[in-house]
## 1
Amino acid sequence: MKIRVTPQQEKAPSTPVDLGKGKVKKPSYGRPLELFREGDIFVHPRGLTVTNGLCSLFATSFHEANPLYLNQEYAKTLGHSTCPASPQLVFNIVLSLGVQNDSEKAMANLGYYDATFLRPVYPGDTLRSLTKVMERKDRGAGKPGIVTLRTIGLNHRDELVLQYDRKIMVAPAGNVPDIGKDVASKATVALAFPERTETAIEIPEPKRAPRNLTGTKTWFDDFAVGDVIVSANGRTITDEHVAWTYRVGNTHPLHYDRVYSKGLSGPMSGEPIVYGGLVFAWLEGVSSRDTTENAIATLGFTEGYHTQPAFSGDTVYAINRVVDVQPIAKPAAKTTPADLRKMSGGEVVAEGPLEAGVVTFQLIGVKNVTGADALSKYGEALFQKEVDKKNHKIAEKVFEIERRVLVRTRGG
């Protein structure tokens, strides 16, 4: 197709400036509390195609040590055609694609719950996300309310790759300036929302991977309930976080617009805040040599809370505590389908031979103090949920979450 055009002529000087009513448009994104209705489904814009370059850049920028995400030949020994995308990259894309609809007007992200990675994502896959409003709790006239959202991520074959819930705090329209009568992102109803009906995780059949490419103390056999693993190295966050915010699709100005962030009141006022998903990824990354170097897959996470904001210039450190270890159970005689790894009733069941077990880590993140110093200063209080504390909260603690990982045994 050809489109024939004439040479472009200057038009602005001869076009009258009209600032009258209805002529000046100020698009608005996100939703005030009143526009969250239980059962509504939001289809998020754009989508994002995962590339080899993005996968590699994310894995190296966020200190991933598992060769599954770095070494294509190693990944092939675990049954993959190439290196899959880091689960942290998948999570950050799926969440970020929904910010324009879900949380661009949110006052706070309150927590992540029941996240499950259901199948790998590979370079060339295109991700999109949808969100369902599960619950809205009003707290009185003029007060912000709590909205519970369920978000799913789909690939371009409409296969479910990720599902999680999160809670956000949202102000009603009376507390949001210039909201107007129209909101750019409107709720879409009567749409398919293919959320999971059972927790069945699909992974390729692993082969015997090389044993000289990973550490010697991160096999399933090395972890016992109660172990506390203090990672030595931290990560200083620079202004790179601004570029990463939109690289994964996050549109909230709190993370990249200094005029916006300084115009806020209260504790959020000041320099742009580092998008929390990136903080989570850096904490996982700096501790991956000590915890997940021999992981086959990340199964999911829950009870995740950003307890303090992080800013450019902060250095974050990670501490992991083992809170559960679970060997893979032998499959029942009639367990189906054969290509799924099933988790039910607290027991992990794999079809076919799988030399691995599930380790649940409680991940704690602190800033501007080493993990060792934080542990020495606060002891067991470091592992108590900040959300449950009325007093004596830890100012240096920035994040807490529980995550489940499928880890190879020494014989695997």
## 2
Amino acid sequence: MNNMKKKLHKLWETKTKEDEWWSSFVTAPLAIMVNYFVVDYKWLTPNLITLFSFLVAIIATGFIVVGGITNFIIAAVLIHLSHVLDCMDGQMARYRGISSRSGSYFDKLTDQIQVIIWFGAVGYAAYLQTQNVLPVFLAFAGVSFYSLRGYTKYVAIYTEMNDNKDYLTKKNQEKIDEESGKKENAGLDHGMSANILWFIKEQRKILSFDEGVFIFMLSFALVFNVLTPMLWVFALSQLFYGFYRALQRGYQIHTNKHPQILSVTGK
């Protein structure tokens, strides 16, 4: 029993503090539960789980394209299964101490592809329902501006690296220092009131409209067959965050490059 408890605690420690909204209290805990039973099978590697997650995502896309409420519900279940597996691979790698750059790369790459094909499939399914091209446009716009969020980040890093070769090292150290300064205020070693308070605070993350929120949005829209309204939310939220991130990154670069000019004009 003591070893089982230690194993569970060690697995819980692999859960990242900055998990996205739905991941934080649904798919990541489910992934820990599944990992508890499979993490010691050496043949089952994190990269293999990443592959399973991606294959399940493709199958879910097929059910969306075929259409029909039954297929939509199956797709919603498969989307959740894919995301549980997506959480599992990182947890398993951290548990075993075998995290790798290539694993992180393929994990992020497949995440991006999944967002594109899921929303693209929903746009197509909504088009078949309405015979209106608007849902396809909304899906395209949402995916485009979601991609812009990531693109501006890497353009900003590239720009900063051209000016300061130690930029990433500095930022990484700042992140490590920030993480080490955070105290765990919820989890297996905390009482119910602390976990309830943590859960309430986590709800703020829904406004980030990132992948963790997308899992819920897609599943809700498929189960209740409200595809076009969900696509409106997706497109508008990504339009806002795409422009916001672009302006934010540009301002940060300008501040780093010309701190004295900004300090003078800001008075």
## 3
Amino acid sequence: MAERRARGGVRLKSDTLALLALSDGLRDWLDLGLRWLHVIAAMAWIGTSFYFVLLDQSLRAPKDLADAGAGVGGELWEVHGGGFYHVQKYVVAPRVLPEHLAWFKWEAYTTWLSGFGLMLVLYYLEASSALVKPGDDLDPWVAVAISIGLLATAWIVYDVLNRLVSDPRLLWPALFVLVALAAWGSSELFSPRAAWLQVGAMIGTVMAANVFFNIIPAQRELVRAKEGGREPDPAPGVQAKQRSVQNNYLTLPVLLTMLAGHFPFAYGADHAWFVLIVLMAIGAWARLFFNLRHTGRTHWWMPVAGALAFVALAVWVERADDTAAAPTTPAHVALGKQVFASAGCAACHTLSDAGATGTVGPDLDAARPSAELVADRVTNGLGVMPSFAGKLSPEEITAVAAYVSSAAGK
């Protein structure tokens, strides 16, 4: 009886998720609105991060002795938009606070909130088809709980690690290993596309939590100290700056996962978790090049090395896909071509081999998806694409997946 009650509880949770599922029209409008907001906020947040890191690394000692005596630690002259700007940074704080202070926080909060909203609309409420790994018997509500739990776990592990390890030469390799573990684990738990987004959401949660729990509280403490007539403690500000710089290096890896949904050949590749961490490493490497350049150290071999790593990864993925996409038999592929035509795939997709020029769904010649990814989409559907699980037999789905993966881009 206890087992029956437990099974009933699982069904109740799954039925609840099903009831919460949105209509196609409402989901599409929420997708548009939340994605637009997400991109706008992310642009503001990333742009702010890029600017202030450039500013910090471009500061020069103040030339005016009065400024130095007032606590100014560095200054920078800038020209932009037809005007000149003179920016000064204090070692800790000015002697008297100005009447107006510009705060930079809502960019981060809005990015995270809109991103979580997208996860809710596109993945959590559609967990059975969008989040759960194809062929896995993981219950949808369990997958959602694991996904949310991993967001919180990512922040806790990261924060504890930062408190225990202060040497960046040890901290960054440890963080890379943790990201690699997250990528591999997510690929084992979730669908290919959701796995990449899960890793991006975990890193994005870490970045937003850095702002909420460390950076903004440190800045508020500086303000309170000045308002209370106390000498500010520089330690919280130093720690906040460290977290801010770490966020800066994480921006491009997270941006990659925001764009990855457009590139099924990448998130659907064999060993997609490895592809993800290599691309993330290239993104962080690009930030390192620019951050060093801001300090006057330009190493042109760094972008060359990054480009070579990108090309090497592309060659490796293509060779792996060519090996994995070898058709079972010509008859099997021929059956898949028939299914592609009879199921109406040509109405939505472009595939030269089939004479298809549809523009509703992805261009299969450009995407060159793996057989695994095609089978996942045909079976479970995603977005405007419906599931064909009840319309095509497993053999037909396998056949059309083999056909598309072998014919795309040829």
## 4
Amino acid sequence: MEHRGLYDPSVTELTDEMARGNGAAGGEASMTIDELARRSGMTVRNIRAHQSRGLVPPPEVRGRTGYYGDQHLARIELIKELQGDGFNLEAIRRLLESAGGSSSEVLNFSRALRAPFEDEEPEILDADEMVERWGGADSELLKRAEKLGMMRPLGEGRFEILSPRLQRAGIELAALGIPADKSLEIGEKVRRHSRGVARVFVEVFVENVWKPFNRAGRPEEEWPKVREALERLRPLASEALLAIFQQVMSEAVEEAAGREIQQELREPAERKKRSARRGRRRRS
């Protein structure tokens, strides 16, 4: 599963080349620390601080000057990417250490960990299109939809629909005569139950994959297997949830239909009993 769009392409190319053992990816160490700072957009002071923490490998020293190559640039870009994903420097250090210093393994695992489950492209609508599709919606409904993660305002009368599939479901419900506030209520309930299901699958990964890996000292050669397990969990969780939902939905429909049929059968009998009681009272 690839999620390259989440990362700077130059980082992906360099780390992938190094992972394949391509010597050209490392490049000749020809940059001074000032040149490395300029190319990476990081200050010399921060680069040296990262070196002291063991986050950036030492330079190749020739004479009295340290020289840096593409592998140093890729490592700095990786650190910036991971910081942007919410990792602190100590967490990054531990990740790199447990991966044997492999920028490629850490980047690939972070990519798999942070990649979104959804595979939809958001859709941008202007105010007129919102009115056309939804017949207008008051500010409170829009706030509820935003809180549910269905859409978000971009300003200037434009809205980003985060899940076009979910929007289509809402439009279909509206066509059935179900008002927008009721559709949002349904969305809130489904989201609440889905969160519980998501926790089940996350717990499966943590308890059966990550914790044994962690207890073993996070061996370098096992990183690809852990990443693969995380990537495979995504389609497996979706497929399992859909299959179970279809079964449960069939059972719920059958149960509801059975209740309604039984109610219809009971009502004529009850009406006959009430009519008989009224007749007896009149005769008496």
